[in-house]
Design brief:
The structure is a homodimer. The first copy, chain A, is α/β, with parallel strands linked by helices. Helix content of chain A is 41%, strand content 16%. In chain A, the strands form five sheets. A six-stranded parallel sheet of chain A has the order 4-14-13-12-11-10. A three-stranded antiparallel sheet of chain A has the order 1-2-3. Chain A starts with a strand and ends with a helix. Chain A binds chain B through residues 38-40, 42-47, 63, 67-68, 72, 75-77, 82-84, 316-317, 319, 329, 333-335, 337-338, 340-342, 344-345, 347-349, 351-353, and chain B through 38-40, 42-47, 63, 67-68, 72, 75-77, 82-84, 316-317, 319, 329, 333-335, 337-338, 340-342, 344-345, 347-349, 351-353.
Chain lengths: 394, 394
Amino acid sequence: MPFKFEVLKTDPSGARLGRMTTPHGVIETPAFMPVGTAGTVKGLTQQALEQLGVGMLLANTYHLYLRPGHELIARLGGLHRFMSWQGAILTDSGGFQVFSLADLRKVGDEGVHFRSHLDGSAHLLTPEKAIEVQRALGSDIGMVLDECIEYPADRERTRGAAARTLDWARRSRSLLDNIGLGSFDVGAGSDPGTESAKICNPEQVFFGIVQGGTFPDLRRENACRLVELGFPGYAVGGLAVGEPHELTCEAATAAVEELPGDKPRYLMGVGKPEQIVDFVRCGIDMMDCVLPTRNARNGCLYTRQGPLHIKNARYAGDSRPIDETCGCMVCMRYSRAYLRHLFQANEILAAVLNTHHNVHFFLDLMRAIREAIAFGSLSRFSSELQARLETGQS
Amino acid sequence: MPFKFEVLKTDPSGARLGRMTTPHGVIETPAFMPVGTAGTVKGLTQQALEQLGVGMLLANTYHLYLRPGHELIARLGGLHRFMSWQGAILTDSGGFQVFSLADLRKVGDEGVHFRSHLDGSAHLLTPEKAIEVQRALGSDIGMVLDECIEYPADRERTRGAAARTLDWARRSRSLLDNIGLGSFDVGAGSDPGTESAKICNPEQVFFGIVQGGTFPDLRRENACRLVELGFPGYAVGGLAVGEPHELTCEAATAAVEELPGDKPRYLMGVGKPEQIVDFVRCGIDMMDCVLPTRNARNGCLYTRQGPLHIKNARYAGDSRPIDETCGCMVCMRYSRAYLRHLFQANEILAAVLNTHHNVHFFLDLMRAIREAIAFGSLSRFSSELQARLETGQS
């Protein structure tokens, strides 16, 4: 199935109900993607992901490039086959992780020189290399390389990073046009010395990324220029890095207003449940975040009444499920008392069950949001959600 | 269902095909019980245990007594309900763990004074207390308290521990006779001050334990005396503590020869796959061991050609399953290359998938052993297994 995106319905707020067709299945949007950093959503089997109804997950190019290596994955048939996952996969460009390395990286116009956090080895990530690695991984949606900056950052620094991001997007567009999908061997990018392997996902597409920090006008300008290059979808990057929620929404809205209505919009790295509704109302179609999985491992469980910290002594003898209105496998079977015991005893099953529940919660939230858009009740849904969370437990 | 044991067929070697009826299901014997120390088989959901066909698992009284506490578990309806497991559960007496504490315990005729490995708190484990705690947990099969000693131990020390074990078995028998099943409240044992809770498993039974170290005559004598007390099943304890395999078999055989043929025999804490067949041929019906689960977490995977160490670089690009003749969920879906990657990246899924495979391997071995007994081919099966394992991979 070649990549396709349709908007089925638009809410007065700007929220969209959509359907994205990928080489590995159809995704209903707005969609939330669990994060499978190293080719695994920590604590969940691929069978569990299927049972949860995960349509698309995110994998991190940086991590897979370093270990086990994109060439190895290509030789084994690509990431889908490597991890035995027949749903859709989106890969990031590696840029965000590389920029997070702080002292271990140096940015130039050519790309980013960085040292591996695993063994200190030196690497150069260029826009071309980011494409090469993601082609080898064979994800359904790849990302072009962008320059992420910290918050707060001043206007000049932000403008510079946005300009470089645009330059890199041009180089990426040019490489993608030259190679032609399906005729691109691993190693044909910036580094012709690497071992060649067959392309595992000839219908893979790449999204452009809008930068511009928290300056709405820079976001607008960057989005306009990016759209001139023409991508099948657009990400809004460099947000959710510490700025207030209102600024995230403002910057995202500014970018979205310049993006074409018939292409999917992906807000990278968000968000909390109550924020997700806001982002959907900004016209965002796709999101990803480590919150449900990372918080699960820290014992923070999502409920319709707000987060529940399972290590709290008050749950020691509590025979109720995490969330009495949740229909997930964990809530159907296990008590808070048992989950607290597993967490206190540092048992593997704590991470497994907590993650299962939290991912189910986020997917359930997205289902409820899509239904609310379909029934024209998103505004009421959003108010009720906020009210519930404000009176919640801790 | 009240406890019942039937021997269906006996092999010339002494191996028995049997059927054990417990309050929580029927177990085909010879049976292997995975170890669920703290009320969880590390890395496996209860759904996975069901899918694997686990009929009975072992839980450790010592660990559950300390955390979350037997009274809490009793208030929550017993261990089956607490961990949401409707199969059978066997609990040990806590003795083995307490004796392993070395500097933290002191044995006397009354019982064992010990300090918790978690918080250093002082406790006294008596034969009566061991029963009280296990009654609160509500396992299907409990164990009376025995005195475990190290290997090597001289004859006098071994004789003393066996005598004390027998004395404790008498006290246990006496308490069990006095309380009468079904009328025993938690707290009615040695420590009347503890909170009372209803009995969760009125049809629970307790096995006696034969001691006697590696001295066959002491094993025989201890078994004879124990049988006079009359238990519904007998365990052989204090073995697999470092002695050569031949001595384990010799001591187990000596004990088994004095045990009644119509009662199940449980060899505690064994064993390696190739040893399990030998123990079955000694007339053993039940075994438990942490090997499949602990080794899984260390990357040691069992195959029909011997153990496979998944961290070995040779598996980095190996697209084959762990064991090409294995039908488990892991071998049906995941490659050695992916499993090696997960192990190298220290991912939770490594422990989850490795454990699933190893437990499946042990249960498959037991199925094959039972079939071999049924078809009268156990001797040939045993020879072939040894030959395969000797030519195996590493």
